[in-house]
UniProtKB/TrEMBL annotation:
It comes from Marinobacterium aestuariivivens. Residues 23-277 form the EAL domain. The chain holds residues 114 to 395 of 401 of the full protein. This is EAL domain-containing protein. It comes from the Bacteria. The keyword NADP does not apply. Keywords: Phosphoprotein.
Length: 282
């Protein structure tokens, strides 16, 4: 019953976000939420187009608000970023995701886990050491960790960002460029930074079959990822048409979106994967 509530909240949250702007919480409230452990990670599956297998998950933070219920990141991430709270939030999300990864592996689910970074992590030279220590603590090899970075996050202090990302890469962390196509960076950053994965933004994926401009950007991005030796991920796969379009392309490696699954609470992932495997192998 509780799971149903959470899934309905995920559904509702997505619908609400399509509408107007929603309230932003105050910095003191967000700070208290972090201190009181009210943040939880949900996890959205990433599926290999070729094999149909679940290869990993992306951690997406939610706030289990004592009064308002499940609150989405667009209502508190910006506040956390503006008030120096994002570093603590990122560390909580990261440590939680690594512990969860260990538990899944113990139960035979060999999944990678992706965590979204903010700019603040990319200006702190001690961040790679923190990541390594957190993984060691959780008993997870760093090759199972994916860090997602958006193009605009690289802009602030590109040299420090490059330094930090290179150190993470040398530790065998997988680096992913997120929301590709929406940023303002020059493409040369893709050459300088050792990214392993490129995630095409949902805005170019959903309905690409019917919209030739989206399709052009989607296909060019997928091709470019391959030419640069990166894995390609399409986000925002919302319906059968999106899925069929991508599965006919040889250039898309991994898909993620509501058509596969909404983000799920950690507890329900094992059952979801078992069910998915049954459906995809017939
Ligand atoms: P993102 O990293 O681009 O994450 C993907 C967002 O798209 C998620 O929204 C996810 O629930 C949603 N989504 C998944 N499949 C579909 C689909 O088929 N269609 C559509 N329309 N949307 C889909 P969510 O969870 O609300 O997160 C929003 C953003 O908040 C994320 O965008 C990310 O930028 C940020 N965020 C989430 N968790 C964290 C975190 O732990 N740290 C930081 N710094 N940012 C986070
Ligand atoms: Ca992301
Ligand atoms: Ca994204
Ligand atoms: Ca986004």
């Amino acid at each position: 019953a509780q799971l149903r509530q959470i899934l309905e909240a995920e559904q509702q949250g997505a619908d609400d976000r399509a509408r107007a702007t929603r309230i932003q919480y105050g910095a003191d409230e967000v700070e208290a939420a972090i201190a009181n452990d009210e943040l939880v990670n949900h996890y959205q599956p990433k599926v290999s187009v070729r094999s149909g297998e679940v290869v990993g998950v992306e951690a997406l933070v939610r706030w289990q608000h004592p009064r308002d219920g499940l609150v989405y990141p667009d209502q508190f991430i910006a506040v956390a970023e503006q008030h120096g709270l994002i570093e603590g939030l990122t560390r909580q999300v990261l440590c939680g995701a690594l512990r969860q990864c260990r538990q899944w592996h113990d139960r035979g689910l060999r999944l990678s886990v992706a965590v979204n970074l903010s700019m603040s992590s990319l200006v702190r030279l001690d961040f790679p050491e923190f990541v390594a220590a957190a993984a060691k603590n959780a008993g997870v090899d760093l090759s199972w960790l994916v860090l997602e970075v958006t193009e605009s996050q690289l802009m602030h202090n590109p040299l420090t960002a490059l330094d930090i990302l290179t150190r993470l890469r040398l530790k065998n962390v997988t680096l992913s460029i997120d929301d590709f196509g929406t940023g303002h960076s020059s493409l040369s950053q893709l050459r300088d930074i050792p990214f392993n994965e490129l995630k095409v933004d949902a805005g170019f994926v959903h309905n690409a079959v019917r919209d030739s401009a989206r399709r052009a950007i989607l296909e060019a991005s997928l091709d470019m990822a391959h030419r640069l030796g990166m894995k390609s991920v399409a986000e925002g796969v919302e319906n059968l048409a999106d899925w069929q379009f991508l599965s006919r392309r040889h250039s898309c490696d991994i898909v993620q979106g509501y058509f596969i699954s909404r983000p799920l609470p950690a507890e329900s992932l094992n059952a979801w994967v078992a069910d998915w495997d049954k459906r995809s192998t017939g």
